[in-house]
Structure formats: structure tokens, C-alpha cells
Design brief:
The complex is a heterotrimer of chains A (374), B (290) and C (352).
Chain A: E1 8-19, E2 22-33, E3 37-41, H1 48-56, E4 63-68, E5 71-72, E6 83-86, H2 98-108, H3 113-126, H4 142-155, E7 160-164, H5 172-189, E8 192-197, H6 200-206, E9 209-214, E10 217-222, H7 224-229, H8 234-239, E11 244-251, E12 257-262, E13 267-271, E14 284-289, E15 295-297, E16 307-318, E17 322-329, E18 336-342, E19 356-361, E20 366-368
Helix pairs in contact in A: 2-3, 2-4, 3-4
Chain B: H1 2-13, H2 18-24, H3 26-46, E1 49-50, E2 56-57, H4 63-68, H5 74-105, H6 110-122, H7 125-136, H8 141-148, H9 162-187, H10 190-198, H11 203-214, H12 216-232, H13 235-240, H14 248-257, H15 262-286
Antiparallel strand pairs in B: 1-2
Chain C: H1 7-16, H2 20-32, E1 35-41, H3 49-57, E2 60-66, H4 69-77, E3 85-89, H5 93-98, E4 102-103, E5 132-144, E6 167-169, H6 173-184, H7 193-206, E7 210-213, H8 218-224, E8 229-233, H9 234-241, E9 247-250, E10 258-266, H10 272-282, H11 285-295, H12 310-314, H13 322-327, H14 336-351
Parallel strand pairs in C: 1-2, 1-3, 6-7, 6-8
Antiparallel strand pairs in C: 3-10, 4-10, 5-8, 5-9, 5-10
Classes of the chains: A alpha+beta (374), B mainly alpha (290), C alpha/beta (352).
């Protein structure tokens, strides 16, 4: 099923929800297209799981509606909604075997037994567990349980599949494998996924679009590239990929460009992106610089057009596939600049701490962030 | 169920290195002093003969067992099985919703409710049953209230009927049913029920297909913990039952307290215990997860 | 002869519960001075008798109750120790002596033993006076004058189907088996299993009519009007009649048994002197009279008779006239084999 723009399968919002006097969600609006892999990303307690549970029907929103395929399902109990969930700890029924688990939803939907018998091996083949029909749930490994949970959820052919941190309990290697497998499966069957995770790398790898949650709100919604390349808020910039975030004062400047003064008296002149807006001169603004976009030099050999920061090498951490170094910038310290160096570049750095260096950043790699309202 | 299970497997497995268990475990020492030795004493007593004025003449003969299998005791046995079975069934029917409520719905009142459920344990059974007599008697609270409000025109004979015996047994053994049930319901992750809803099961179907089967160990433990002590109960029938509802427990207690025939009482007790252990053993053999 | 935990006692106990700490303190205090441990039927002693004894002698009485004498026997045999003085029914005395559970009262020690009526000296169940008679009574039929159309006259009334579920029998092997034997004209000397089968059949035949076998709680049911007819011990019924004046007592025309409860010294007692002083005290005429007046049984103490409540003294149901007195039978002293046959017969009736 090809993804058609504006063909929204699931629409949500604006949804608010409180538990007691604690607000959990504030005006969350979200739409998921057919065949889309939508990830709800955020730290724990940000509201992403509650959003998923509202879609599934386990929680009802205080305000706002949930629409599935054009129909309002807000008041429908979970068992009447055409969505299935892969639970965080799988929630496989221990008293049933693998086939019994997979058949459960289809039996509830009154799918004919012959059809069920046909679909079970099909679903198992999809998750690469052919022949596991009669295995007891308790005898499966974590990865296998995960696959059975997935097979159980897709066998009933729901309109939307909800996944609540499904890989959270697996070890790193298995998780990486499963990420790819899950993405391929999703593409193959063309089913819309709503995927909850706190792992930004996972979100980047798998998603068509990501909704970044923070404090019960969606801070930014977009493709992984958009979110990475154009973070709108300091939270998004920091949570996705990490960022050096500085506060700057806006100085008068040319149209389409931002003339900024950092707190340590560095002056920047950077171009504005289409979506970036700048407050009036004299106001403060936050800017972000990705650690991997910073180059480090020892001599005055600055690339053309780059912004220059004089600094001292303060610390370095070896990360295997690269390293991360921390620079203390000259002038009015203590601003710190984190720099990520990939594989070969690592050897360009002397291990001697305290050595003066020059950090270079291309002006277009400085992101102007939306003010947080403070 | 866990403790019961462990105790049972210890008792019944045998194949494991029983000797090391015996020597090492303080629990085993406890079992030996308070369970095995008395049981052996009981068996020894059952092989003795009854001497003058109820003295015990130690010997080795099976006369007591021969007497115990006399057909005249069959009605008592059947009556006891019927009462124990009915009590267990009623306790399950009443106790399951109660345990379910405690586990799924009681919320912050759960602690208080569980304590309330335990209160009968802290009351002497004697006091409890005398209270029931005060309630159920011809001039008791129940009859007085029913008469006063005009529901009946003559007092009901409730006390000393099978009904009052059943009531007493259910009253006394209900916590024995509810607590294991509650324990097993409490252990069911809520996500299982949510998964069932999610896959299209309504509340009732989710209960039948998921909650009930998963609570089955608790159902069985609760049933055993009710049925088995019911078989040996004598106080309930003694106080709330008329003369026609004497149970095995009364037959046994009468041998000790009235007939002064301890060896015969011991033989009856040994047979009852053997029956209980045999039943448990059969159940373990049948249980798929054993 | 006793109301175990009657409704009244239950309420009383509930009211007294707050006093428990001070009672416990009293017990501890009693530990230090001279004591005697006394094991008696419940409701079988005057209200002031023991406190007066303590006041007079400084000997504290630790008092325990039982509600069934076979159960009492089983408890003592099972090793319940520490009692100095017990009350024991006449028929049990040979058994206690054969098992060496009691010591004879030494002759000549009790200065009040002479107060006993001659008929209670050297009785057949205890010819050498190892024990001392305490109170005596008869077994008869209690009935409710108001609810019963015709007054019962015969033991066979207890087998009358029209009283189904309106009657109770004593939960006591001696009285019930003896009654069946009397009605079947079987002598108590029998050891013939066939006789015991007949006894058993007769009692089992009655069972569908019987609301309860009880030596205690049936009195509550009588008072409450739940039953109209009961095999009873005389004094217990007279005590119950205080709560329900419609209750009356009859000695059936076939005749009945009298029995004597006796004071006996437990073997191994550590307070022998004190126990003997208590026996002697209970034999004092005024003490014996007050005691009997309270529990409404007859006293074997001839010196106490003139001091007794004249109403009781004149009541032929308590002190039968000499002619009826002569008709009262005493229980035969059973040998061990007979004892076992009696006990087993009764146990079988109970579970039938």
C-alpha cells in the first residue's frame, strides 16, 4: 500500500489528559498516514506512552478526539478498535502455546478456523519463527517472545499497529537486528506503525516521521532528517543527536541573516533557514551547534567561510568508533564546546590537554532555536 | 501455593536427594519434629489395642483398621465428602468475586479489606460459632428481625440444620479459599488483560479466556486448602449441626473424648490423613505443570 | 449439671473482658500464697463459696471448668496436670482408681465427714470412701408446661414422633445407654454384644426425632423455647427454670437413676493439705447448704438439710420423699470390658 500524502489513517487531537492534578498530555495533535512508520520519541514521563494508550483505548482523553479511518473511536473500548498493540513486556498469554497466542485475536474477530490455520504459519514466517506453533511461551527467548508478540499483533490485520518500546528488553546487538527487521516487515506489509521509544537512534533508524515529546507536548514533528538538521527547540536539538547550546544576543544585521553575540563575546553572522525566525535586536536567542559539525585545527588554517572559536582542549573521551572532546572556549569562559570526532579524525587530536586549538563551524551549521517562551 | 507446593514436592518427590534435604534444612527439622514424629506416633497408636478403661496397650495389629472400614461408617464418610465438597464449591463461588474485587478493584482499600477478611482467623472459632448460634437461633437476631419486619410469621428453624453447618463451614473456611485466589490473581500482570482487550476480547471473554485460566493454580490451591481441613472439621458440626450431621471429624473426636478408644481414633485419623495425602498425590500426578 | 458457655455467660464474659488485666494480676498474686487447684463442672458451685473459703483460710483457689466428664477424663488422662482436687461422677470413680489417677482421702483427717447422711457413707461405687460426696441429683425429663399439651410421664415420650425436633438428649454415655437398657429390660451387668446392638438400635431409632445431643447448650434452647422436652439433670433444669418459669421437671414412671458427684484428690497433687481443707470446708453445714441452695442440687450433707432453703427442701423433685428415694437406682459399677462396650455403643449412636 503506497503512502499517500494527506491520506490520514489516524487522527488525534488536540488531546489533553491529567492523572489527578498532574497534567500528562497538553494539546497533543498527531496524524498518522497509511503505511507510515510514526515514532513517538521522548524521555520517560513525557507522555508518549499515554498517547499510545489513548490510541489503543486503555485511557480516555480528558479533551480531544481520536479518529481512526475517519470514524471517531474516542468512546470505543479497546476491544472494538481496529488497532493491535505489541506490549513492552510482550504480554504473551503463558497458558497458551505460540499458535494459541497468535490465533487469539483472530478467534475474537470470528475469523473462520480454516483461515486462522492458514494465517498462523504465515504470521510466523513473517517473523522468522516457522515451526514454532506448538512451543510453550515460557520456553522462548526474549527475542523469540518479541517476534511472537509481533506475529500475534499483525495476524489479525489491524488498521494500525501500536508498539510500546517493543525492543526495550533486548540486548543491544539483538535490538539493532530487530530494528532493521521490524522496519523491513513494516515496509513489506504496508501497515501503519505507531512506535514508542526513548531511544533516539532507534527512532532515527526506523521512522518515516518522528514526534518528539517533552513534558506532555509534541515539541517537533517531522522526518528524521528534518528533526536532525533543523531542530526547532533546545530540547529537540539536545535530545536528538546532542548539541552545544548557547544563548546569544541578537544584534542588528542584514535581512535573511542573523547577527548574534555569544555570551563569551564571540560574534556570529549566520544565514537564516526558511523556518527560522529571529527575535528583535536586543533580545536573546538560543543557538545550537552539533558536536560532529565542529572541526578542530591546531594551526591557522581555517576553512573558507567558517566561524572561528579559539579554545583549549579540556578533556577527551574515547568511544571506540570515534571520540568526543571538550573544548573550553577563550575569552569569557566557562562556555564549553563538545566536539565529536569520527574514526580517522581522532588521530588528528593531540592527547595533550591544555593545548590551544581552533574550532571551526560553518555558519549554516548554527541552528537558531525557537524561544521556549521564557 | 508456593509453600504448599514446596512442602508437597518435598513430601512427594522423594527422588531428589532426600537425605541431604533432611540433614541440612531447618525447615525439615521443623517438619520432622512437628509433623513426621507426631504422624509416626499416630500410626503406632493406631496399631495398638484399647485396654481397660481406655488405656493403650501397645501392640502391632490391624484390628482397628478392620473396624474402621466397617460399612456403618460409609454414610459418615459420604456426608463428610458432601459437606466438604459443597463448602469448597460455595467458597469458590463466593470467594472468587471477592478475591477478584480485592485484586483488581479495591484500590487503596485493599489493605483494610484483607485485614477484615483475616479477622475471623483472630477470633476463636468457639466464640465465632457461639455468635452464629446467637444469630441463627429461634429467638436469635435473624428470626427476631424477620418476625419484626413481617417477612415470616413463625420463627425459622435454621440452627441445627445442614444449612447452618454449611454456613458455619463456609464462614470459617472462606479466607482459606480467598487468600490463595487473591495471591494468584494478584500475580497476573495487568498487561495480559489489556492484551486480551487489545486483541478484541470483551470484558467477559477476557476474563474467561485469560484471567480465569491464569488464576487456576489459585483456584486449585484455594479448593485444596478448603476441602482438606473441611474433612477433619468437627467443631462446626458439633456446635451448629444437629445430631444428624455428624462428620468424620466428630467420629474421630468422639473416639478420643467420649469412647476413650484412642487406638481406634488414631486408626481413623491415619486413614483420613492417608486419604488426603493420596488425593494430593493423585492431583500432583495429574497436574500438567508438576 | 452444667451450662457450658450459655448466652448469659457469653454476655457476662464480654462485659468482664476489660477486667482481664486485673484478674491476671490477681492470679499472679495468688501464685505467692498458698493455693489449691480445683477442676469442677461449670455452674456447679455457689457464687460466694470459694471467695469465702479464701477469706477464711488465706488459700487461693485456682478454678477450672469442664462441661463433659468423659472429656474431663480424656484431658486428665492425656496429661493435664496440676489439679489438686476434682469433681468426679460416681460411675467414674472405679475407673479413676483402676488407673491410679486419684489418691484416697486418708481416713480420719476430715473433721466434717460425719456430717454426711448415712446413705452416702461407704456407697457401692466407693466402699472404702476414697472420695467424698459433693452433691447429688437425678436424671429426668425437663418440659415446657406452656407449649406441651400433655405432661410427659414416661421415658417413652422421648421416642414419640410428635416431638420430632422438639426434644434433646443428654450427650452422656452413662445416662443414655442406661436409659435404653432400662427400657429394654437389659441388666447393666450385661457384656453380651447382642444386648448392646439392641441398645444401639433403640437409640438410633430415636435419633431422627432428636434436635440435639447436649449436656449444656440445650438449657438455653429450653429457656428460649426452641425445644419443649429434654432429658436433663435435676439441678440444671431448676437453674434454667429461674430464667423461664414455664419449665418443669418430671421423674418418669418407669423410675430413674440417681447419681452422686464426689470430690477426689488427684494423684501427684502438690497442695494436698489445702485440698483437704477445701473438702472439709465444703462439708461444713452452712457452706454445704448455701452451695446446694445456689446450684439447686440436693446435698448429701445431713447437717446441711435444716439450713437449706425450705422451698428446695420441701420440693419432692429435689429431695424425693423416702418412698421415691428408695426407688431410685444407682448405676452399676462397670468393669473395663463393659465400659468399652458402653462407650463404643454410644459413639456409634452419635455418628449413625
Amino acid at each position: 500500500m503506497p503512502a499517500v500524502a494527506d491520506d490520514n489513517l489516524l487522527e488525534l487531537g488536540p488531546v489533553s489528559k491529567s492523572f489527578g492534578s498532574t497534567p500528562i498530555l497538553r494539546d497533543v495533535t498527531l496524524s498518522v498516514r497509511r503505511g507510515e512508520f510514526m515514532t513517538l520519541l521522548g524521555p520517560s514521563g513525557c507522555g508518549k506512552t499515554t498517547t499510545l494508550r489513548i490510541i489503543a483505548g486503555f485511557e480516555s482523553p480528558d479533551t480531544g478526539r481520536v479518529k481512526l479511518d475517519g470514524a471517531d473511536v474516542t468512546d470505543q473500548p479497546p476491544y472494538e478498535r481496529d488497532v493491535h498493540t505489541v506490549f513492552q513486556h510482550y504480554a504473551l498469554f503463558p497458558h497458551l502455546d505460540v499458535a494459541g497466542n497468535i490465533a487469539f485475536g483472530m478467534r475474537m474477530d470470528k475469523v473462520p478456523e480454516a483461515e486462522i490455520r492458514r494465517r498462523i504459519p504465515e504470521a510466523l514466517a513473517m517473523v522468522k519463527l516457522s515451526g514454532y506453533e506448538t512451543r510453550r511461551v515460557g520456553s522462548l527467548s526474549g527475542g523469540q517472545m518479541q517476534r511472537v508478540a509481533l506475529a500475534r499483533a499483525i495476524a489479525g490485520r489491524p488498521a494500525v499497529l501500536l508498539l510500546d518500546e517493543p525492543l526495550g528488553a533486548l540486548d543491544l546487538k539483538l535490538r539493532k537486528e530487530m530494528q532493521l527487521e521490524l522496519k523491513n516487515l513494516q515496509k513489506k506489509i504496508g501497515l501503519a506503525f505507531v512506535y514508542v521509544t526513548h531511544d533516539q537512534e532507534e527512532a532515527m533508524t526506523m521512522s518515516d516521521r518522528i514526534a518528539v515529546f517533552n513534558g506532555g507536548r509534541i515539541e517537533q514533528l517531522g522526518t528524521p532528517g528534518e528533526i536532525y538538521e533543523s531542530p526547532r527547540t533546545s530540547f529537540v536539538a539536545d535530545f536528538i543527536g546532542g548539541a552545544n547550546i548557547f544563548t546569544a544576543k541578537v544584534l542588528p544585521g542584514a535581512a535573511g541573516r542573523a547577527h548574534l553575540l555569544l555570551e563569551d563575546e564571540h560574534e556570529l553572522d549566520v544565514p537564516l533557514d526558511a523556518h527560522e525566525t529571529l527575535p528583535a535586536p536586543g533580545r536573546k536567542v538560543k543557538v545550537a551547534i552539533r558536536p560532529e559539525r565542529v572541526k578542530v585545527f591546531y594551526k591557522d588554517e581555517l576553512p573558507f567561510g567558517a566561524l572561528r572559536f579559539d579554545a583549549v582542549l579540556q578533556d577527551s573521551i574515547f568511544l571506540g568508533d570515534g571520540c568526543q572532546i571538550y573544548l573550553r572556549m577563550f575569552k569569557k569562559a566557562p562556555e564549553r564546546l563538545t566536539v565529536a570526532l569520527a574514526g580517522g579524525d581522532r588521530y588528528a587530536v593531540h592527547d595533550d590537554l591544555g593545548v590551544p586549538v581552533i574550532a571551526a563551524v560553518q555558519p549554516e551549521d548554527v541552528y537558531i532555536l525557537e524561544s521556549d517562551g521564557d | 501455593m508456593k509453600t504448599l507446593d514446596r512442602g508437597l514436592s518435598w513430601l512427594l518427590a522423594g527422588r531428589r536427594s532426600a537425605a541431604s534435604h533432611l540433614l541440612l534444612s531447618p525447615a525439615a527439622a521443623w517438619l520432622i519434629v512437628f509433623l513426621v514424629l507426631p504422624a509416626l506416633g499416630l500410626v503406632a497408636l493406631s496399631l495398638a489395642r484399647n485396654g481397660a478403661y481406655g488405656t493403650v496397650v501397645w501392640s502391632l495389629n490391624l484390628d482397628n483398621y478392620q473396624r474402621a472400614v466397617d460399612p456403618r461408617y460409609v454414610p459418615v464418610l459420604l456426608r463428610t465428602l458432601a459437606f466438604a465438597g459443597a463448602t469448597t464449591a460455595l467458597c469458590l463461588v463466593l470467594g472468587y468475586p471477592l478475591a477478584y474485587f480485592l485484586s483488581f478493584r479495591a484500590g487503596r482499600f485493599r489493605g483494610a479489606l484483607i485485614i477484615a477478611l483475616m479477622v475471623p482467623f483472630w477470633t476463636s472459632a468457639l466464640v465465632a460459632f457461639y455468635s452464629w448460634m446467637v444469630i441463627l437461633g429461634k429467638e436469635g437476631l435473624l428470626n427476631t428481625a424477620l418476625l419484626r419486619f413481617g417477612f415470616i410469621s413463625a420463627p425459622l428453624g435454621i440452627l441445627y440444620t445442614p444449612f447452618s453447618v454449611l454456613l458455619g463451614l463456609v464462614y470459617f473456611y472462606l479466607p482459606f479459599t480467598v487468600l490463595p485466589l487473591y495471591g494468584s490473581l494478584e500475580k497476573i500482570p495487568r498487561s495480559y488483560v489489556e492484551a486480551a482487550y487489545d486483541l478484541g476480547a470483551g470484558r467477559w471473554t477476557a476474563f474467561l479466556k485469560v484471567t480465569l485460566p491464569l488464576s487456576l493454580p489459585g483456584v486449585i490451591a484455594g479448593a485444596l486448602l478448603t476441602f482438606i481441613p473441611c474433612l477433619g472439621d468437627f467443631l462446626t458440626a458439633e456446635l451448629l449441626g444437629g445430631p444428624r450431621y455428624y462428620l468424620l471429624g466428630n467420629l474421630i473426636s468422639n473416639q478420643f473424648l467420649m469412647a476413650q478408644d484412642w487406638p481406634f481414633g488414631a486408626a481413623l485419623t491415619t486413614l483420613l490423613l492417608a486419604g488426603m495425602i493420596g488425593g494430593l498425590w493423585a492431583y500432583r500426578r495429574w497436574e500438567p505443570d508438576a | 449439671m452444667a451450662t457450658d458457655v450459655s448466652r448469659r455467660d457469653f454476655v457476662k464474659a464480654a462485659l468482664l473482658a476489660p477486667l482481664l488485666p486485673s484478674l491476671l494480676a490477681a492470679c499472679r498474686r495468688a501464685d505467692r500464697g498458698p493455693v489449691v487447684n480445683f477442676f469442677n463442672w461449670s455452674n456447679y458451685i455457689g457464687k460466694d463459696t470459694l471467695p469465702n473459703f479464701t477469706k477464711e483460710t488465706g488459700i487461693a483457689v485456682r478454678y477450672d471448668l469442664f462441661a463433659d466428664e468423659e472429656e474431663m477424663f480424656a484431658k486428665l488422662r492425656a496429661g493435664a496436670a496440676g489439679y489438686d482436687l476434682i469433681v468426679v461422677g460416681d460411675y467414674l470413680i472405679p475407673r479413676f482408681r483402676a488407673l491410679n489417677m486419684i489418691d484416697p482421702v486418708p481416713p480420719g483427717v476430715l473433721k466434717n465427714q460425719g456430717n454426711l447422711a448415712p446413705g452416702f457413707r461407704h456407697p457401692p461405687y466407693d466402699p472404702d470412701e476414697a472420695t467424698v460426696p459433693y452433691l447429688w441429683g437425678t436424671t429426668g425429663i425437663a418440659y415446657n408446661r406452656k407449649t406441651l399439651k400433655t405432661k410427659p410421664t414416661s421415658w417413652w415420650d422421648l421416642w414419640d414422633p410428635k416431638y420430632k425436633d422438639r426434644l434433646s438428649m443428654l450427650d452422656n454415655v452413662r445416662d443414655c445407654v442406661a436409659l435404653a437398657m432400662q427400657l429394654l429390660n437389659i441388666p447393666q451387668t450385661t457384656s453380651d454384644p447382642a444386648d448392646f446392638k439392641k441398645v444401639r438400635d433403640l437409640l438410633v431409632r430415636q435419633k431422627p426425632l432428636v434436635k440435639m445431643y447436649s449436656s449444656t447448650s440445650y438449657l438455653n434452647s429450653l429457656v428460649a423455647g426452641e425445644i419443649d422436652l429434654a432429658m436433663t439433670w435435676s439441678g440444671d433444669l431448676f437453674q434454667a427454670a429461674k430464667d423461664n418459669p414455664d419449665l418443669d421437671y418430671c421423674l418418669p414412671k418407669e423410675g430413674t437413676y440417681m447419681w452422686v458427684d464426689c470430690l477426689a484428690l488427684m494423684r501427684g497433687s502438690r497442695h494436698r493439705e489445702n485440698a483437704l481443707r477445701l473438702i472439709d470446708y465444703l462439708l461444713e453445714p452452712q457452706v454445704a447448704a448455701d452451695n446446694a441452695n445456689y446450684v439447686r442440687y440436693a446435698s448429701p450433707n445431713a447437717k446441711a438439710w435444716p439450713l437449706a432453703d425450705p422451698v428446695l427442701r420441701r420440693d419432692p423433685r429435689v429431695y424425693p420423699p423416702p418412698k421415691r428415694m428408695a426407688e431410685l437406682k444407682m448405676h452399676h459399677v462397670l468393669d473395663p470390658e463393659q465400659t468399652e462396650l458402653w462407650n463404643q455403643t454410644w459413639a456409634d449412636v452419635k455418628v449413625a
